[in-house]
């Protein structure tokens, strides 16, 4: 069994899979996981095959940042959050800029930075039972991983504002209606559908697909890159503020009260942000 939180799997059909592989923690992003994500995404970008498949092991996609790793750092909180965000942002940029199509498969909870990561894909398939939640403002933070750049472009400015400011939860079907997901599929069919989509693209007209993706992306990469720098700076500044530290502590205390301080809660219950 792999001990790495993020893995790269090469499939014979030309599909290169980037797999979030720490299901016991809900694929949450602490600094080691964010750095592993950055490094494995760079590995995929260097050799992407004919298509990239981004998916997760376990019952959830990614619950975002690991608040427990953020909490209790006092004056060093902002620096730590900035390091996590910067590493995760490098992964988002690598996926956004990879020249071949990227298919994302989303199941279970996807929150915080997990949403920006998922939306970097060209085609996003979501299980009907998936739950999309931004979650940042609930703990006194702001979006990162490109969520505040991607959401207005995919869902429109009004819907993006609602999702960011109210932390409304979307199902997989809701995500399709809002434009966050290309298509919602039955839970049991998610992995098969995502792999079929990636394999079909990987065996398609490669030069034409790359050129078409280039036309769709246009010259937006530099804009996203600049935006990510601003997102990382702002979330780090807020992480140092008393309000965010108090909200994070209260969130963790409430969760410990529900589930006991000793063990970890289930991934669905540990929704957080990055």
Automatic annotation (TrEMBL):
PANTHER family: EG:BACN32G11.4 PROTEIN (PTHR43459:SF1), ENOYL-COA HYDRATASE (PTHR43459)
Region (Disordered): 255-274
TM ranges: 77-96, 108-127
Keyword annotations of the record: Membrane, Transmembrane, Transmembrane helix
Protein origin, superkingdom: Bacteria
SUPFAM superfamilies found in the cross-reference section: ClpP/crotonase
Keyword Iron: no
Protein name per the record: Enoyl-CoA hydratase/isomerase family protein
Pfam annotation, one family: ECH_1
InterPro entries: ClpP/crotonase-like_dom_sf, Enoyl-CoA_hydra/iso
